[in-house]
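Researcher: Predict the fold of VWFA domain-containing protein.
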Amino acid sequence: MTFAAPLVLVVGLLLVAALVVALVLLGRRRTAALAAAGVTRAGSVRRTGVWLTVAGLALLVLAAAGPTAAVPVPRAAGTVILAIDVSASMGADDAAPTRLAAAQAAALAFIEAQPASVDIGVVAFQQGALTTALPSADHAAAAAAVERLTVQGGTSLGEAILTSLSAITGQTVTVAEDGTTPELGYWGSATIVLISDGESESGTDVETAATVAQSAGVHVETVGVGTAEGATVEVDGYQMHTALDEDTLRTVATTTGGQYRLASDADDLDAVASGIDLRLETADEKVPLAGAVIALAVLLLGLGAVLTVLRTGRVV
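Model: Structure tokens for VWFA domain-containing protein follow.
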């Protein structure tokens, strides 16, 4: 327990202590005087009323000092990286209005729903991946980064995961040519939300990248955009058929301890993104106790007053 005004507590308790000493001395003198006169004193009810009143005054002093207690409270906190696919296939319209537009709408809804205790970053990926907003409590910056995304290039889910891990850890995360993966430590309060159609054409092997995330304790929650039937998009003057690859997205999520979710349009994506559970961590929050202490003080003062009335037969 801590106090906002410890000086008030010290001075107030000294005054209450002085009152207690005075009452004890006064009581002893009265008892001695009555004994000298041959009168036996029977004032237990009276003494109880007095001490209840003194206890009430002491509690009022305690309340005036502004007591607070640190209470462990679970809250959603940590770091979230929104990794959004901006490859050419995200221009397909099998998720209305397009896969990318639907993904952007979902990402913006997700950002808006998060408390200030969550740091949010944004990674856009195609053949490579680029951190467009470092994780921070500035959710407006993250939303602006999402709104700037445009369709371009191919897809590399593996690079998306590694770049997201780089943004989380603050160090460049790569996989060596011989397959050696880096030691990143444990980042259990971090989550990657990967929104993609799942097609991966180049870059680091996606399963290897998922293993790196798993070893760092980072969950990758995957959201599939599009349909298994797919759609046709035009890339550099050529027609290309693209379809949702659920198996890859499901593998990434399963490997890292996350979940795979399917969404076919913007409304579905909004519901999916807002339903993603962030891991909870416990933080101490200061809870004011003055109200409870005052209530108890009033109770004691009231009991003291009742006992005094019963003893004397009068209110004053």
